[in-house]
Amino acid sequence: KSKHAVLDDMRGKRVLITAGKTVEAIDPVRYITNHSTGKMGYALAQEAVERGAEVTLISGPTDLPKVPKVKFIPINTTSEMAREVNRCFEQIDIVVMAAAVSDYRVEKPATQKIKKKSDTLEMKLIKNVDILKDLGRKKKKQILVGFAAETQNLRENAARKMQEKNLDLLIANDVSRRDIGFGSDQNEVLFLRPGHEPLLIGKNDKKKIAQRVFDCIMDF
Ligand code: CTP
Ligand code: CA
């Protein structure tokens, strides 16, 4: 079937997308985060809304403009993202976790700016909740889509994540490549689905990748 003729094929679908990075405070002026720019998540939100879906975008800080007609929920930390995701989840049909979530947070962020004193500084980090894994445990009819960022053994690591998080689709990214992924307008990804052969989506604009993601989901 023609993919481009059907611009309204997601009408009535309630889609939740997370995007960007989460940020964990060290002290009032410093933080832990990652290189995610949010481009992939925002492209997904744009695509879904253009196809008629009702879209909620939960986003960490980015430099990107808001996506018109999308319900926007800004967050900073992983726990804030978890809270907002869980608040929406029951009313959602499709969840796409495109955010690069900080796996750890500082156990006790300093309330005042940390002064440089000794030659070394130790900080204890504690693990954040795995938002997607939790959704995988409690999902009913929702379609769950995750991303995997890997620097090695892409297929094996990604396949394990798909299983462990009980996903319907996992989009695997090789983040060691400079030409794609983080910060780039382009990406090359592998689609993994339970019971299906991996599908390589060759290097393409994030907009095009977003199209392929929803084409795939709407074909389930
Ligand atoms: N994710 C999440 N909550 C976390 C960490 C990750 O929901 N605390 C989601 C991401 O949004 C992504 C998927 O899980 O959709 C995989 O993230 P990734 O960082 O690749 O995998 P992890 O499970 O965190 O494992 P690791 O970082 O150790 O490879
Ligand atoms: Ca991680």
UniProtKB/TrEMBL annotation:
Pathway: Cofactor biosynthesis; coenzyme A biosynthesis; CoA from (R)-pantothenate: step 2/5; Cofactor biosynthesis; coenzyme A biosynthesis; CoA from (R)-pantothenate: step 3/5. Its EC number is 4.1.1.36, 6.3.2.5. Residues 10-218 form the DNA/pantothenate metabolism flavoprotein C-terminal domain. Residues 15-220 are annotated as: Phosphopantothenate--cysteine ligase. Its cofactor is FMN; Mg(2+). One of its GO terms (biological process) is coenzyme A biosynthetic process. Keywords: Decarboxylase, Flavoprotein, FMN, Ligase, Lyase, Magnesium, Metal-binding, Multifunctional enzyme. GO terms for molecular function: FMN binding; metal ion binding; phosphopantothenate--cysteine ligase activity; phosphopantothenoylcysteine decarboxylase activity. It comes from the Bacteria. GO terms for cellular component: phosphopantothenoylcysteine decarboxylase complex. Binds 1 FMN per subunit. It catalyses: N-[(R)-4-phosphopantothenoyl]-L-cysteine + H(+) = (R)-4'-phosphopantetheine + CO2; (R)-4'-phosphopantothenate + L-cysteine + CTP = N-[(R)-4-phosphopantothenoyl]-L-cysteine + CMP + diphosphate + H(+). CTP binds at residues 103, 113, 147, 161, 165. In the C-terminal section; belongs to the PPC synthetase family. Catalyzes two sequential steps in the biosynthesis of coenzyme A. In the first step cysteine is conjugated to 4'-phosphopantothenate to form 4-phosphopantothenoylcysteine. In the second step the latter compound is decarboxylated to form 4'-phosphopantotheine. Catalyzes two steps in the biosynthesis of coenzyme A. In the first step cysteine is conjugated to 4'-phosphopantothenate to form 4-phosphopantothenoylcysteine, in the latter compound is decarboxylated to form 4'-phosphopantotheine. This is Coenzyme A biosynthesis bifunctional protein CoaBC. It comes from Liquorilactobacillus uvarum DSM 19971.
